[in-house]
Amino acid sequence: NYSRDNVWSLRGVPDIDASQSYGEFGIRQKAVTGATWALTSSFTDVRNETAGNMRKGFTPSVALDLRQPVLRGAGVERNLSALRIARINHEVDLLKFRRQTTETVTEVISTYWQLVQARDVLLIQEELLESTIATYDRVYERRELDATAVEIKQAEAAVASRRATLIIAQKFIEDVENQLAQLLADETLNAVNEIEIVPTTLPGTEQVTFDVVDQLVSALRHNPILEQTRLA
Hints:
Helix content: 40-55%
Structural class: alpha+beta
Strand content: 15-25%
Low-confidence stretches: none
Number of strands: 4
Distance between the termini: 42 Å
C-alpha cells in the first residue's frame, strides 16, 4: 500500500505546503487453525513548509500481527474443508472424464463392428443381385417357350429391387465410416478425402461365458456414476 496527501493553505493565510506519505509492505498468511498472521514494514514521511522553513518527520515501523478466531472459523477441520472439497471435486471430474472416455471407446468399438457387419451385408446383397440377374436371364431366354410376359416383368422387378437394396447397403457403409471417422477424430479421415475404412479384425466365433454375480459386483464397484454419487 502507498498513499500521499497534499494540503495547501487558504487565501490570506501564510503560505503553508504540507505533505504526508505513507507506505506499507509485507506478507500475510492464513494457517490451518484459522489464524491469520501478518508481518509488515511501514513508514510515514511528513513534510511541512511554512514561510520557507522546512520540517521533516520520518517514522519507520515493523509490526507482527496474529489473529486467532476462538469460535467462528476456528479449527483445522473447518479450515481444511475447502481443500478437501476441492480434492473431491477433482476426483469427480476425473470420474466424469473416465465415464466419457469409456462411452467413447464403447461407441468406437460398436461402430467398428457395425462396419464389419455392413460390409458382410454388402457382399450378401451383391451375391443376391448376381443370382437374381442370372434368374432373370434364364426367364428371358425362355420367353419363346413357356415364360410369360408377367414372369419376365416380375424378374425385372426383382433385379431392380435387389439393385436398390444394394445401393442402400453401400450408402449405409459410407454413413458408418463417417460416424467412425468422427469418433476417431483423425484429420486424415474425413468426407473430403474420401478415404475408405477397411476393417481388418474379424469377429470372434468362440462362445464367451460371463459370471453374472462377478459382473454385477464389478459394475457396482467401478461404475463412475456410482462413485460420483458416493463422493457427493
